[in-house]
Amino acid sequence: MRRAYKFRLYPTSGQASRAAQCLRDHQRLYNAALEERREAWKRRKVSVRYGQQSAQLKDIRALDPDQSRWSFSSQQATLRRLDKAMSAFYRRCKTGQMPGYPRFKAFDRWDSAEWPKDGDGCRWKPGIGRVHLQGIGHVRVHAHRPVEGRVKTIGLKREGRRWYVVLSCDDVPARPLLPTGRQIGADVGVARFATTSDGEIIPNPKYLRTSAKELAAAQQALSRKKRGSANRRRAKAKIGEVHRRIRSRRADFHHKTARALTGTCDVIALENLNTAGMTKRPAPKPDPDEPGAHLPNGAAAKAGLNKSILDAGWNQFANILAGKAEEAGRRIVFVNPAYTSIDCHLCGARCARPRQDTVICPVHGPLDADLNGALNIAARAGLGSVQAHAA
Predict the structure, then answer these.
(1) In the predicted structure, residue 391 carries a pLDDT above the cut 70
(2) Residue spans per domain, the chain
(3) What radius of gyration, in Å, describes the C-alpha atoms of the chain?
(4) Which helix (H) or strand (E) holds 93?
(5) β-sheet bridge partners, residue 6
(6) Stretch (H or E) spanning 352
(7) Per-residue pLDDT for 254 more than 80?
């Protein structure tokens, strides 16, 4: 298996300064490479590839002492990052999706760099609690758990004022758990985080909503600061810190919930949800009777629903659950989500849904919407526990 380990770094002030400069130089390299690609196509209709830009690195490092301080391999990884973004752009163009040409990166939106191989410009040293990064030094690491497998890549990540190292490891051994006989379907939602087909309810902590007042106060403080001032930078950092705490609490909840489910279930069925599509803003509706005007399209209500879906973090939870299931020898099944909540699990009839928590079957009457959805998910996955519950 391949697993990632994320540990907090405690750099000295000098190391933190050099780490920030490392990210800045990688950001400059990315932007320069993107500019070269744009100009080559604009002026000569020529596509510049990764191999051509990687071949220029030696000359760039010879001419620019700032770039020569850093690992050649890490700079190649930055160019590959751009190449991957361009490939995704071409793919979207071919499939008729919104293309979304890669953007130039501002420094406050460039928060990571990667070394593709342990020992090539970097070195993981767990025996002394350090990681060595070329140009930055031996940085102290708080490794709160042992690293298993073979360290493949090493990444440097900045989150606000904090620094982290991310280790991607191959050949991590699995730890299969003993069978429990429990097989469930799980329906995720916004009122409840999840409901299982055997009746377990997992409440939704709604971390963004509970921190809304603190976040609003921080955003209001930012709006009163003068642009370009040190006070504005500190106010902006405060907002980032609030968001970081929300993300950390949400991820902690997802990890603990996924660990509890994989510890008690042999098979877990989930809906294969397209959360990116579900959280798109509604398209505007032009008014045919008044040019330039638009009809109501429910954008305000949809915005609230989008925020609740993103706060729940369904996609992140599914990824975490899949990783823990693989490690524990459990099985995850993804099913088609169409009509799981409004088809009766007993007779298959299409139900009415007058409220978020209730569906009404024309044959069997009112049903719990989330439990009904979980039972349909389990049935679509072919799990035997559904028949026992329905009987």
Answers:
(1) no
(2) 3-170, 183-281+313-390
(3) 25
(4) helix 72-95
(5) 166
(6) strand 352-355
(7) yes
Query: Do residues 305 and 291 make contact, with C-beta atoms less than 8 angstroms apart?
Result: no
Please state, in angstroms and rounded to a whole number, the distance separating the CA atoms of residues 105 and 121.
24
**Per-residue pLDDT tens digits for 116-153:** 999 999 999 999 999 999 999 999 999 999 999 999 99
Residue with token string 């020992």: 119
Sign of the alpha-carbon torsion through 234, 154, 131, 150: positive
Q: Please, are residues 226 and 232 in contact by the beta-carbon 8 Å criterion? A: yes
Percent of the chain past pLDDT 90, that is, above it, reads 88
Element (H, E) at 306: helix 299-312
Q: Could you please report the per-residue DSSP string of 22-69?
A: HHHHHHHHHHHHHHHHHHHHHHH-----HHHHHHTHHHHHHH-HHHHT
Q: Quick: pLDDT tens for 64-88.
A: 999 999 999 999 999 999 999 999 9
Angle at 309 between CA 325 and CA 238, to 5 degrees: 100
- SS3 of residue 305 by DSSP: helix
Q: How is residue 282 annotated by DSSP?
A: P
- Find the helix packing angle between 212-223 and 230-264, rounded to 10°: 160
Number of Cβ within 10 Å of residue 311's Cβ equals 19
Q: Cα dist. 16→65, 105, 156, 162, 244 in Å? A: 20, 21, 11, 9, 19
Burial class (CB in 10 A: 0-12, 13-18, 19+), 178: exposed
User: From the CB of residue 199, how many other CB atoms can be counted at a distance below 10 Å?
Assistant: 12
What is the arithmetic mean of pLDDT over 236-242? 94
The terminus-to-terminus CA distance of the chain in angstroms comes to 40
* Mean pLDDT in residue range 322-346: 94
Helix (H) or strand (E) holding 210: helix 207-210
Instruction: Tell which residue, 89, 96, 97, 77, has the closest CA to residue 47.
Output: 89
Read off φ and ψ for residue 2, nearest 5 degrees. -115, 130
Whole-angstrom CA distances from 112 to 73, 105, 147, 276 are 14, 12, 21, 24
What is the Cα–Cα distance from 306 to 284, expressed in whole angstroms?
16
d(CA 87, CA 366): 50
